[in-house]
Automatic annotation (TrEMBL):
Keywords: DNA-binding. InterPro entries: Homeodomain-like_sf, Myb_dom, SANT/Myb. It holds the Pfam family Myb_DNA-binding. Residues 49-103 form the Myb-like domain. Residues 49-107 form the HTH myb-type domain. One of its GO terms (molecular function) is DNA binding. PROSITE patterns: HTH_MYB (PS51294), MYB_LIKE (PS50090). The keyword DNA-binding applies. The lineage of its organism: Eukaryota, Viridiplantae, Streptophyta, Embryophyta, Tracheophyta. This is Uncharacterized protein. It comes from the Eukaryota.
Amino acid sequence: MLCASDYIAKSGWRHGSRVRSARERGTWSINIEPCSRDLRSTSEGQKHGSRRNNDHWTSEEVKELVDGVSVYGVGPWTKLKNERFPISIRTAVHLKDKWRNLVKAFTGNVKRRISPRLDKDCVEKIKRLAADYPRK
DNA sequence: CTTAGGG
DNA sequence: CCCTAAG
């Protein structure tokens, strides 16, 4: 019965040692920009003081995602992506992945502190939406 | 290309 | 996150 076939080994996002980062992840800045102050083509370069440039989702993204889902629904991630954040290279695959991960992180385990301390409203919406249409 | 599921 | 499969 399939022995320990853990070809993936690491359950994280890295696939062993692929390390293919550094792709088209330069600018994204969600819909809501705190202040139009960017484009610093001077030195610094690799340091980035940085806000949320690439990698990892944040409460802002989750909020937008939940907001879009609450009105659009699960499925049309493409539309959501084009309506919410056409900027950035967040494709439907990523959106779905985030949703899945979020739902799995909230449903069931009520006692769990998530990474970026999401607001109660956010969690409630996610739970409500996740329980609304069970695509499982 | 987009959605859906698994690793 | 990345890959694969089906539409």
